[in-house]
Write a structure and sequence with these properties.
Blueprint: E1 5-9, H1 10-20, E2 27-36, E3 42-51, E4 57-60, E5 65-67, H2 73-82, E6 85-91, H3 103-120, E7 124-133, E8 136-145, E9 149-150, E10 153-157, E11 161-165, H4 179-195, E12 197-201, H5 205-217, E13 221-226, H6 250-261, E14 266-271, H7 277-280, E15 288-291, H8 296-308, E16 313-322, E17 328-338, H9 353-360, H10 363-371, H11 386-405, E18 415-419, E19 424-428
Parallel strand pairs: 1-3, 1-10, 6-7, 12-13, 12-15, 13-14, 15-16
Antiparallel strand pairs: 2-3, 2-6, 4-5, 7-8, 8-9, 10-11, 16-17, 17-18, 18-19
């Protein structure tokens, strides 16, 4: 399903909402970076909003505006310098106005399109019209040039997750299936759930529980990624599995199970590891990613991806410490939410770079480096119990719901720990470390770059 999504940081979205609320028409240039999708679609990442200076307006009323080229040329020069696509933004603030292009808007677009494409060297011209709506905004937009499409959705990524559909989009009917949930958080949140694209990386005990709960909530577009086949020991934890499935790819087993739960569920099963670029590309189209992998290498890459592509990551895992005699010492479930403004997994020391590197090496090279003392040893088979993987998965899915609905305390913690052995929970928040990739402010660091995801990749 190819839809064109514009992803915004909370800061940019809040400024757009404020501009839309002004009593006179206002304009700005939104600098976006591009993210190519495996199926040929495009995602745009809006990372900087440059408002037209007051001095550049010739006319400005609640129904019209005109500006000099000084209003946008500096923004186009900046867009070219950072490899950004420039989107021309203006508002329709008059009472009762809709963000629908007028004849005058069409004439302005025709006048600006070639200039925007030529000056930014991006090959694209984008236009976005916003109008105030119930304290927020509504919009329509288009991308023209070498890629032509309507901007169907705006995803706002921050401590809360917001998904806005374009003003001219259809409003889907909701089945009776979700009546009890609608009574809890309303029809609009249920529609958002049905519209989200979610990737679940890792289809084991935690990932399969996450995926099943998502489908039962109303998520209808899922990508599942995992390199492994189902083993006998997986049967105690992987939802949807049966003894006859042993030896099959986990993602195929889980995908078949999920499509039996509800009508209209589309699942893309991807066999492979996100440590491989060809597999990692399948994550880019997701609105939200659940990291349910148990390897450090995958977590390291997803952490980097989350910030480079403005994509919220809900990373979760379970650690059971037991004696060699099988006596449990502690059981900890962890749910860490990554988004612009929160610290990454590396800053939190939730991943170990040396171990991540060891997991991505060829087996012979890793064995030799370990023997020589230059690399850590790889961990063995860790304990795992369905009760704890399922409870952690439920807490992770609860984070998604809370950040869509907004019923929890503010400021929101970005990590929760389930201390099963102590029968208690704790939460915390950590700011990005200055200068680290999770605090990046350079527009050129976002989206598709020469070093895809900002990383090197295995051959």
């Amino acid at each position: 399903m190819n839809r064109t999504t514009l992803t915004l940081t909370t800061e940019v979205a809040d400024r757009l909402i404020a501009i839309a609320a002004r009593p006179v028409e206002s304009a700005a240039v939104l600098l976006t970076r591009r993210a190519a999708l495996p199926g040929g679609g495009l995602r745009l990442l809006g990372v900087r909003l440059l408002e037209v200076p007051d001095a550049a307006y010739h006319e400005r009323t609640e129904t019209a505006l005109s500006i000099s080229s000084d209003g946008f040329m500096p923004a186009l020069r900046e867009a070219e310098s950072v490899g950004a696509t420039a989107i021309w933004v203006h508002t329709h603030p008059a009472p009762g106005s809709a963000p629908v292009p007028s004849r005058r808007d069409a004439a302005v677009d025709a006048h600006l399109a070639d200039t925007f494409r030529a000056r930014t060297a991006s090959g694209l011209y984008g236009t976005l019209i916003v109008a105030p709506h119930e304290g927020a905004m509504t919009f329509t937009g288009r991308i023209e040039g070498e890629h032509q499409a309507a901007i169907d959705r705006i995803l706002i990524a921050g401590p809360t997750f917001r998904l806005l559909r374009s003003f001219d989009s259809d409003t889907p009917e909701l089945p009776d299936l979700h009546d009890r949930q609608i009574r809890a958080f309303g029809t609009e949140i249920q529609r958002v759930l049905g519209d989200l694209n979610i990737a679940v990386v890792g289809a084991g005990g935690t990932g399969s529980a996450v995926a099943e709960q998502l489908v039962r909530l109303g998520i209808r577009h899922l990508t599942l990624i995992d390199p492994d086949t189902l083993s006998t020991s997986n049967l105690t934890r992987v939802y949807g599995s049966a003894p006859s499935d042993v030896g099959r790819p986990k993602v195929h087993v889980l995908a078949e199970h999920l499509t039996r739960i509800a009508d209209g569920v589309t699942v893309e099963p991807v066999v492979g590891s996100v440590s491989r670029r060809a597999i990692a590309q399948h994550v880019v189209g997701a609105d939200i990613v659940f990291g349910c992998t148990d390897d450090e290498a995958g977590r390291m890459r997803l952490s980097r991806f989350s910030y480079a592509y403005l994509t919220p990551l809900i990373d979760c895992g379970v650690k059971i410490t037991a004696t060699p005699q099988g006596q449990i010492q502690d059981v900890i479930g962890r749910i860490t939410v990554l988004h612009p403004g929160s610290a990454c997994l590396l800053c939190r020391r939730r991943v170990t770079p040396a171990l991540a590197a060891a997991q991505e090496r060829a087996a012979e090279e890793q064995a030799q480096l370990f023997k020589e003392g230059y690399a850590p040893g790889l961990p063995g088979i860790e304990p795992a119990v369905v009760a704890y993987t399922t409870a952690t998965a439920a807490a992770a899915v609860s984070e998604l719901i809370e950040r869509l609905v907004g019923y929890g305390p503010t400021p929101r913690p970005s990590e929760s720990l389930l201390l099963f052995h102590d029968r208690r929970t704790s939460s915390n928040h950590l700011e990005p470390v200055p200068g680290h990739y999770c605090s990046a402010v350079d527009v050129a660091h976002y989206g598709d770059t020469e070093r895809y995801w900002g990383l090197n990749w295995a051959a």
